[in-house]
Write a structure and sequence with these properties.
homodimer, alpha/beta, FAD/NAD(P)-binding domain, five-stranded parallel sheet, about 25% helix, FAD/NAD-binding_dom (chains A, B), NADH oxidase (chains A, B), redox-active center (chains A, B), Pyr_nucl-diS_OxRdtase_dimer (chains A, B)
Chain lengths: ~450, ~450
């Protein structure tokens, strides 16, 4: 059995490993158009910041390690076409320039996402970058050697992680965001503001409601960003305005693309085309809270989908249970996390949701390292079912307790279930009533009040 | 309606506040034999260590603040008797020495625990202490002024918290433990050893399997601890060998004492005697994993029980859902946490349990601040139901993720449920597969293997 995997990062390599474990007799081949496989793309900002020594440290397994497990790895091989009827792919070897047609029994499309480059960013100017893969990171590293002023376009989590990184390397940093606030897709407005305050408090300039119109350059290098609110000088510009799923190949195979714009699959990661699977950032998943299809490209999800696809392609039977919308990031000392739905997302879906905002301390209030922690907890008004939570704290790790809410969302838990949890307590870890319990108590009273 | 509460710390004051909120017309009186109410006893080691500025910082609410809410507070008033037939108590005012008989409609016994003082510790020698309340803490503080050598008798979490504290204050510290390892009641053997290694690595001497026989003294002050393995010199000795529930008053009221030695109650915190409630460290609770009655005196549990008792005494209807056995502590950089059952506890109960041990990193392996984290995950072999987890890590806060397991135990979740959790991921917070997910994956394979 020949299992062909297109894309060798998170989903692709997880699938390859799993398929091999499931069926050691299978012929598993991974085609990767780039030069690296199996790396932690989420770590890229931290190499630039120095928290990780080198880009090489992000690589979990080398091609030789994969080959030693019997997995074929072809670097700089781009799969440019699929004939699902004939069960073949067309592959171009970028080293030789030659293309070939190869057969498959099962095909996995794990082509990931590409960073969006708006028209103004389609430029030959030096010093203008996106950050998706290791070569992008290396190019930014080279640009930073002489740079003094950075503009980051886009106030999502990658932009905000980079803002810390570049500021801590001594650059002056301006974040330009089109929307009214930073972290716009992740948090409700009040919590977005807390994130912005952390960045501004550390000396990063944030310009929201600002649209980039063009770039200025001199001698082939970028010199500034022209916005609808004036020119911002810059030696280096990072474009972090979002990503777009790479669905060309899936489309060529005849696979259905979902309304989200990503590849539609069933719970076994099968596309609408027999024998063709899709996994990773290019693929939709099911949101367990709303039961809708969503496109939330994140590392853990990609790995999970890859495992499921790998098992199934090799003859096993695995299913992907979907996501609850958990995400987390750090910028400077601040951690921000969310799971489930924000109040604004719930509103947009027409759910009758109610939220409470609680501020407490992450450790016992009297304990030396305690910092304020802010939690918004959201539930369905009539049923009391938990819908989501948002957390912000200046001890970044303290927001990882969002996972308790994620656990409850999986079981469609209620506010009262959260309140009854026997959470661990000692002063260096939390208050006697962990902030999550305080929020649950407050929210259950709020729900009770409205029902009376 | 007259609600009388005996004991003004965690359970008692929670009950008083809740009763008042439930029924603002009620006459709520708290009798506290000591001089302080409403303080965080769990914070005592941290005042001695300097992480908390003063003992006063541990006080959540003063008697005046409680009185301003309409709650009567009588300090240095000891309730010495109960006549449940007549619905009266006998109270001694330690200021005047006078005693009085007072009526009640509802009575709450929240008398807590006392530190055990073995025979050898029944001494008049100066420098010998237990640590249960603020005066104990103040006495230790006074003893520490001139002390150079400390012996802590008992390697439970209070002893180990104090070991860090006293070592960091410059004392040489020896921990003497009768059992074969430290943290004996909390963790399985391998995890106990990791805790000991942390203490020893920091210069604390640990002597396990060592029994104290007597104390030596000179000029009225302790000079050493005589053990079955020789004499250990000491200027200060802290006795932290455990606690015993204060059940004398409950017994006098005719209330049933459970097999655990603590007061037996139903889910409304009612004792076997009409109109008499019990809450807090002197009281049993139900373990949700084993469905047995247990006595696990901890701060959150005490607060919860107090709330439930307060609501019910004032005419409301609340129930206490029980515990899952979560606890957590820090010593030096190390955090240790557990929830549910350890493998040895499961074995002792005759459960067919299986555990896996996983070591990973708390943050992404390549991230600068990542430390090894060790997890033991335990499940019922046949059903795959989760039974418990133990975590140890040298970034102490990273073990707070034990709460995810606690959340699952409440819902009697399975290993597969844990594996499917959409836990939050970014490199400064965890690996892409959080160590809990890695453990769940490993354990589900282990269970599958044995079933084949």
């Amino acid at each position: 059995m020949r299992i062909v995997i297109v894309g060798g990062v998170a989903a692709g390599m997880s699938a390859a490993s799993r398929a091999m474990r499931q069926n050691p007799e299978a012929d598993v081949v991974v085609y990767e158009r780039g030069e690296y496989i199996s790396y932690g793309a989420c770590g890229l900002p931290y190499v630039l910041g120095g928290d990780v020594d080198s880009f090489g440290d992000l690589i979990a397994r080398t091609p030789d390690q994969m080959r030693a497990r019997g997995i074929g790895v072809r670097l700089r091989h781009e799969v440019t076409g699929v004939d699902a009827g004939a069960s073949t792919i067309t592959v171009v070897d970028h080293a030789s320039g030659r293309s070939a047609v190869e057969p498959y029994d099962k095909l996995l499309i794990a082509t990931g996402v590409s960073a969006i480059r708006p028209d103004w960013a389609q430029t030959e100017l030096g010093g203008v970058h996106v950050l998706r893969d290791i070569p992008d990171g290396q190019a930014i590293e080279a640009s930073l050697q002489k740079a003094k002023r950075a503009v980051i376009v886009g106030g999502g989590y990658i932009g905000l992680e980079l803002a810390e990184t570049l500021h801590c390397r001594g650059l002056s940093v301006v974040v330009v965001e089109k929307g009214p606030e930073v972290a716009g897709r992740m948090l409700d407005r009040d919590y977005q503001r807390r994130v912005r305050a952390e960045l501004e408090g550390n000396g990063v300039e944030i310009r929201c409601g600002t649209t980039v119109e063009s770039l200025t350059g001199k001698g082939g290098h970028v010199t500034g960003v022209q916005t609808d609110h004036g020119l911002i000088r810059a030696d280096v510009v990072i474009v972090a305005v979002g990503v777009r799923p790479n669905v060309g190949l899936a489309r060529a195979a005849g696979a259905r693309i979902g309304k989200t714009g990503a590849v539609a699959v069933n719970i076994r990661q099968e596309t609408s085309v027999e024998g063709v699977y899709s996994a990773g950032d290019n693929t939709e998943s099911t949101h367990r809270v709303t039961r809708r299809r969503v496109h939330i490209p994140l590392g853990l999800t990609a790995n999970r989908m890859g495992r499921v696809a790998g098992v199934n392609m090799a003859g096993g039977d695995a299913t992907f249970p979907g996501v609850v919308g958990s995400s987390i990031f750090k910028t400077f000392a601040l951690g921000a996390a969310r799971t489930g739905l924000t109040q604004s997302e719930a509103d947009a879906l027409g759910l009758k949701a109610v939220s409470v905002d609680v501020s407490s301390t992450d450790h016992a209030g009297y304990y030396a390292t305690a910092k304020p922690i802010y939690v918004r907890l959201t539930a369905e008004r009539v049923t009391g079912r938990l819908l989501g939570a948002q957390l912000v704290c200046n001890n970044h790790e303290s927001v990882k307790r969002v996972d308790v809410i994620a656990a409850l969302l999986h079981g469609r838990g209620k506010v009262q279930d959260l309140f009854e949890m026997d959470l661990s307590y000692a002063p260096p870890f939390s208050g006697v009533w962990d902030v999550l319990l305080v929020a649950a108590d407050r929210l259950s009273r709020e729900i009770g009040k409205k029902q009376e």
